[in-house]
Amino acid sequence: MRSNQEETENAPFNPQMIVRRLAAAEGYLELNMPLYAIDELNHVQDAGPFEPIAQLFRGEALQAQEKYAEAIQPLHVAAQMFPKPFNQRAFMALSNCYRHEGQDQLADEAAAAASPPDAGDVLQMVTTPIFQVKIGGTNRMTHGHN
Prior knowledge:
Elements: H1 4-10, H2 15-30, H3 34-42, H4 51-64, H5 68-81, H6 88-100, H7 104-114, H8 122-126, E1 134-135, E2 138-139
Antiparallel strand pairs: 1-2
Helix pairs in contact: 2-3, 2-4, 3-4, 4-5, 4-6, 5-6, 6-7
């Protein structure tokens, strides 16, 4: 009998399963349960076109655990992979991690990249959850769970 780990590693690319795992990881992050988010992300071996989201969530989960040095790499990858202005969330988290690591110049540069002068109201848009889950006809953001 094969283990879940073996099944995950040998399974063909399944976008629905990846989206479910990423949505679960984001939910755990919203509930301040970063270890569970990491567990979900560890089940995604090849995120394909969802790789920027997987990297962002991994970085945010590590940041939530105060593992700032470890969070920098996935957040940097996410910031580079997301097109502007959708990379602002990654840059904001990256700035926070750099600041906690005492790298103030890099923190300032990441913060500046997160807030370009022509951003306007876009910053609010990119800091909202990526996945909107419908529960009984209402979405989770208005269902009293935020």
